[in-house]
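In response to a reviewer's request, we include the raw inputs and outputs for one of the modeled complexes. The two entities were modeled together in a single run.
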Amino acid sequence: MATTTAVGLDTSTRNYITESKGIKSWLLTVDHKRIAIMYLISVLSAFLIGGIAAVLIRTELAEPGMQLMTSDQYNQVFTLHGAVMVFMFIIPGIPAVFGNFALPIMIGAKDVAFPKINLLSWYFWLAGTLFAIASLLINSADTGWTFYTPYSTETETAVSTILFGAFLLGFSSIFTGLNFIVTIHKLRAPGMTWYQLPLFCWSLYATSVIQILATPVLGITLLLVMVERFMGVGIFNPALGGDPVLFQHFFWFYSHPAVYIMILPGMGVASEVISIFSRKHIFGYKFIAWSSVAIAILGFFVWGHHMFVSGQSKMAGLVFSAITFSVAIPSAIKVFNWISTMYKGNIHLEAPMLYGLAFIFLFTIGGLTGLFLSTLATDVHLHDTYFIVAHFHYVMVGSMMMAFFAAMHHWWPKMFGVMYNKKLAMWAWGLVFFGFNLTFFPQFIMGAKGMPRRYADYIDEFANYHRLSTAGSYILTVGIAMMAVYFYRSLKNGKRTSHNPWGGGSLEWRTSSPPPHFNFDEEPTPLDPYNFDDLVYSEEDEGYVGHRLAHESELH
Amino acid sequence: MITESLTSGPINPATFLGQGVWMPPQASTYAGSVDGLWNLIFWYSTFFTVLIMALVILFVVLYRKRPGHKEQKTASHSLPLELFWTIPPSLFLVVFFFWGLNTYLDMNTPPEDSYQIHVTAMKWNWNFTYPNGVITDELHVPVDTPVTLTMESSDVIHSLFIPAFRAKMDVVPGRFQKMWFEATKTGEYHLFCTEYCGTEHSSMTTLCVVHTDEDFEAWMEVAKDPYHDAEGEPIPMRDVGELFYNRFGCAQCHSLDGSVLQGPSFQGLWGKEERMTDGATMTVDENYVLQSIWEPNAHVVEGYQAVMPTFKGKMSQKDVTAMIEFMKTIE
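The model returned the following structure tokens for the whole complex.
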């Protein structure tokens, strides 16, 4: 039984953390849970680097004129911010950390299908990141994370180094996707049907399909830029007989679907937490599940909407605009289903739920502002202004980061068996939510008024919007710093939790916290993951118990 | 003239919170259509944002965990409900699409009789060449006349953006790009580069000046001959040089106050000995300046990169003479 006096990480009982000791037992592990923890530490380090760059950008932009750095340095810092956040944090964020940790347990498996490839994926992440950091130390790239040619083939900064880093990170992403697809197909607990999968698994499945189909295109494109830089073969540079717009087609063929790599796992997290913390069966399970697949498929046919003013044909504009609108439909379906899930529920405003609700808010704004951009005539005006910057930060940061935090607060007690300070978590949530909106909402307005993106300096009349935005970024930073403190402290003196502190119905809540090395002591029988009827809160256990937990005594 | 503000336009009470607060002033024929569409999407988005937030907050208030409150069983799926919230909102998307397409086609179809201006974008300034061969660094156009810009880039991708006209088009090296607009109000408007192009991207801005027909002609008379003023009196060579310094965008890279930008400052440059990247030492004299303008990368001063575009064909030997006279005065 969980005792009220025990605090901090449990080092006495056997679980995946205490299973073996020493740094080698981690670096050579093939346990999906340990790889998830290594990914957690890694992507959070990347988040720190990208976050420092973000604060530098906002500080420089607080006033017109150049105060903190030269315009060359500014260009290097925003490139670093974009590349690190996209390739090292947002894309691997939820799948490689929480997917790796939870997916095999959620489907009742001992591990992913290819545990060694899973470890290899982490080493590719590490190698890619080292190349990116090498670029930073040599002469940090100044191309923006989009690497548009011919600028990227001409600049004298260390572009090839960071391109090669992104190329390696692509392998890391492909390996994770490959693993998840095979794992979901082959390793579901006996008797578990596709419709008994938690929706988080469906969203990861859809994400994985994009990862393995789109990422190779990015890899080849980046290699072609390197070939052009090193060997002078004309592919994208018109001075050598190439076509710079071809690069944009190749790049967005990956990078637009990649937006769904970023957002789909977040949608999966939202489906989990909204159902669990409303104590209600998820509404419209099949619609949510298949809308993930629909988004993944449609996402492959919209890349040209990044190029409405690039001079592509009017017919191409027409087609890409029309298909882009179709993506709005499955996205809207999800939002309405989440809200219906809350109807007549019993809403527990715990930290994961607060982040889940923040996700709905910010995704709604991020998604609806996308309509201005899929409409041809309005996009011409808004393209490459701060309106775009605000739009994709609402989707990629607002939504994805909120989902990442929701997942972190949701599965933290499962991962480490300890609870964080819930009061501080509420405060941090408030700061993060308010700070985020203050940072990015003014950017919609100044963008609509014509403030171009990637400007180191700007005309005075935009100064007030920039001041608000910078103030917001500092509040956001304080919120995140607070979060780092209480998570760290929970490992030292956090209260031990039961195996099911939130009352979740999926299989990970039926094993101990932290789980044993092979996830379950006894093969679990799959049930509807969103049926909470049998779960009742036990004061004594400080967690939920029910007839599903017949083996409870063996868990402790 | 004062440049039109982008952030403070008249607020139309009918569109309060709509385009009145959000968009810059309108100054082209198609700006009205773009803003009308903007308003429609804005109110549609606002409706759904408010609806969704209101429902979330309402449910949180009504169904929050509290003593005595329990969840109630309700249906876990409903096809009619799914269709209800999918189909009617989607019909609006069809309207957005067709309206957007219609205006986009208009924006991309230059009228045949339009006034032609050739644009050259380069790191980091704009050159506008008029039908009579006059080159300027600011865009001057007559009001109520369709203007077509045929654009080329001499280096990387740039993008020409005039917010007040709602007009934007990338300038891609290796091809010509066309855009057109018809200004409806005289005034000075901001013109920005909106495709990231390197170091001085954010200073690659200029103005679009919209004149009445008479003013445009008068302006052109003066612009045609930089060596004489409006009365036909000759202008000192030094002052002509200063005009060229601004017109050809020299200021982007060569400061007058000694600060180091992409190229050497003009301050005290005349007569100075410079070490070149190839080891040679050269004195800044007439022939050195001529070569630096016509074949800028033949010799590059140590510590700088070979990034300057050539001005051969744009600046005559007489123009260079004016520039030299200007340089001599920067001490």
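As requested, we also summarize the result in words. Confidence is low (pLDDT under 50) at residues 11-17 of chain B. The radius of gyration of chain B is 28 Å.
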